[in-house]
Design a protein that fits this description.
Elements: H1 14-20, H2 23-26, H3 30-46, H4 52-70, H5 83-95, H6 108-143, E1 149-154, E2 157-163, H7 164-189, E3 191-192, H8 208-214, E4 219-220, H9 224-229, H10 232-258, E5 266-267, H11 286-309, H12 323-346, E6 349-350, H13 352-360, H14 366-375, H15 380-397, H16 406-410, H17 420-423, H18 428-431, H19 441-454
Parallel strand pairs: 3-4
Antiparallel strand pairs: 1-2, 5-6
Helix pairs in contact: 3-4, 3-6, 3-8, 4-5, 6-7, 6-12, 6-19, 7-10, 10-11, 10-12, 11-12, 14-15
């Protein structure tokens, strides 16, 4: 018989039991449910709502149960309905009437809110730790590539010279923002919900602040209706995870084409590649492609949760049970993707000569030539037009700017002198950029050291 069956004259249809049951996925929360129950029991005893003897029995039994579950000694009966009922039922079987007091001043509505917040807090910490590992890997690789020049692109067209280190550091900035977002979400999650009851609290004189202290929450929620119906923190987490996947997917896309025969900028390790069942010569970047593909899955979980919550009136509604599978799936997917991406990126080989050749045989020095003219007094728009004419001439004659004679330059503007050839060197313009955020070697080195120190 279900613990809530007192009001009912008929049992649920079997298909309703199956449809309603969440134990097969929310048992993931057992640790948080038990820890929350221990804190709740201690508070009930402190407030003389249950006896000290009941407290001791319950705390011991709860700790024993957690140990047994950890060791795989507990098989959950699907008739338990959810993890909350499972814990209470097993306790009742083990210690009798004392366990029936555990739910005093508590509803599954505020109980599940507590479990989910504790879960989200812990998973945020784990994802941040994985992102820091990835950041460290990127920055250590960047250290070795501050002199490795490569094309920087806009519209997938070669634009200006940067370094491979600078490119890696661009992604490190994305992952730093991801960490910052997660930390911000953590702050709003770290508000203790237990004590709100089903929707309107309890008539007992409970001490919510004491429970918050025991469970390491910064504060307690301030409105019982909002407490049990709030899933903003879940949506925020799913949003944060979706953005992380977007960043991983963008990086994976670059890995995929960098490793292609058309680019040959890098070689992905055999450890993180696969072959073809038909074509013997193939070496496929399947890891990067899978990460790119799984991004859509994490996006879908965010959209699913936003859709679930968009029309729910106050307070709790069963629709909100849908928060768990989406969250668990996104968390597990993102953690796996960060971990395997870190391994993949740490083993790539950078083809420095190919990257350099791509910079030399290009028009990426055109902007530097325009700025050369501006520094000699030419308005930028005129300089832009002059250099555009020079590029057009080179394209027609199958040349690059550095192949032109001084006379050919002077035909377009008398401001050109012999010093133009120093400007045309592939690294000259980059190394004159002294401002923060530039790809200049010294600037990038300072950035690397700053961020490495930050993530220690």
């Amino acid at each position: 018989m279900k613990m809530w069956a007192g009001r009912f004259s008929e049992q649920n249809a079997k298909e309703v039991d199956i449809f309603n049951n969440s134990l097969h996925f929310d048992k993931v929360l057992y640790k948080y449910d038990i820890l929350g129950s221990i804190a709740h029991v201690k508070m009930l005893s402190k407030q003389n709502i249950i006896s000290k003897d009941d407290e001791e029995k319950l705390v011991k039994s709860l700790n024993d149960l957690m140990k047994d579950i950890d060791e795989g000694k507990v098989i959950f009966n699907e008739e338990y309905e959810d993890i909350h009922m499972a814990v209470e039922s097993i306790l009742t079987d083990r210690i009798g009437d004392s366990a029936k007091r555990i739910h005093t001043c508590r509803s599954r509505n505020d109980q599940v809110a507590l479990d989910m917040k504790m879960y989200v807090k812990e998973e945020i910490k784990e994802v941040i730790s994985l992102l820091k590992d990835l950041l460290y890997t990127l920055l250590e690789m960047a250290k070795d590539n501050t002199k490795t020049i490569m094309p920087g692109y806009t519209h997938m067209q070669r634009a200006q010279t940067v370094t491979f280190a600078h490119h890696l550091c661009a992604y490190s900035e994305m992952f730093r923002r991801d960490i910052d977002r997660l930390q911000d979400t953590y702050k709003r999650t770290n508000v203790m919900p237990l004590g709100a009851g089903a929707l309107a609290c309890s008539t007992f004189d409970i001490d919510r602040d004491y429970v918050a202290e025991l469970l390491d929450f910064d504060s307690i929620t301030l409105n019982s209706l909002d407490t049990v119906s709030d899933r903003d923190y879940v949506i925020e987490l799913l949003n944060d995870l979706a953005i992380i996947m977007m960043h991983l997917s963008r990086f994976s896309e670059e890995i995929i084409y960098w490793a292609s025969d058309e680019f040959k900028f890098i070689v992905v390790s055999d450890k993180y590649s696969t072959g073809s069942s038909m074509m013997p010569q193939k070496k496929n970047p399947d890891v990067a492609e899978l990460i790119r593909g799984k991004t859509g899955r994490v996006y879908g979980n965010l959209m699913a949760m936003l859709t679930v919550m968009k029309g729910i009136p106050l307070a709790y509604n069963k629709d909100m049970q849908e928060d768990k599978e989406t969250t668990f799936d996104s968390v597990n997917t993102v953690k796996q993707c960060i971990s395997i991406f870190t391994g993949m990126i740490s083993t790539i080989t950078v083809n420095k000569d190919v990257l350099k050749e791509a910079c030399v045989n290009s028009f990426m020095n055109a902007t530097d030539v325009a700025e050369y003219l501006v520094k000699k007094g030419c308005p930028f728009r005129d300089a832009h037009f002059i250099v555009g004419n020079l590029v057009g001439k080179c394209v027609n004659e199958d040349k690059f700017l550095q192949d032109l004679s001084l006379n050919e330059f002077k035909e377009q503007s008398g401001l050109f002198e012999d010093d133009i050839y120093e400007v045309l060197h592939v690294t000259t313009g980059m190394n004159k950029k002294n401002m923060t955020a530039s790809p200049k070697e010294e600037i990038v080195k300072k950035y690397i050291e700053k961020i490495l120190d930050e993530i220690k």
